[in-house]
Write a structure and sequence with these properties.
oxidoreductase; two-stranded antiparallel sheet; phenol 2-monooxygenase activity; 2Fe-2S_ferredoxin-type; five-stranded mixed beta sheet
Length: 109
């Protein structure tokens, strides 16, 4: 099975991503917290990253959070991209409102 090195230009970290493994899953396995995590299914947009170098394939992502023109520029969701070569990425900071929404907890009564 192939392994790909992912260099995170935002943090300076390197991670190893197995063939068929999403970049987010590889980050989580190493305890990295470069991006916020939401649904892990390409729908919420929290784990947005920018791929600066390298080739990858995409799983299904929300077109609201990753429209085709953004994907062409490498702006993708870490939970739904799978490296085909070594990658260089940057984490994309979310607006504060989105981060606040992610950290809000609900109280059950």
């Amino acid at each position: 099975m192939a392994e790909f090195q992912v260099f995170n230009r935002t943090t300076g970290d390197h991670i190893i991503c197995q063939e068929g493994q999403s970049v987010l899953k590889a980050m989580e396995q190493l305890g990295m917290k470069c991006v916020p995590v939401g649904c892990r299914g390409g729908g919420c947009g929290f784990c947005k990253i920018r791929v600066l170098e390298g080739d990858f394939e995409c799983g299904k992502m929300s077109k609201v959070h990753a429209p085709p023109e953004a994907v062409e520029k490498g702006e993708v969701l870490a939970c739904r991209i799978y490296p085909l070569t070594d990658l260089t990425i940057e984490c994309v900071l979310l607006p504060e409102a989105a981060l606040a929404k992610q950290t809000t907890t609900k109280t059950l009564r």
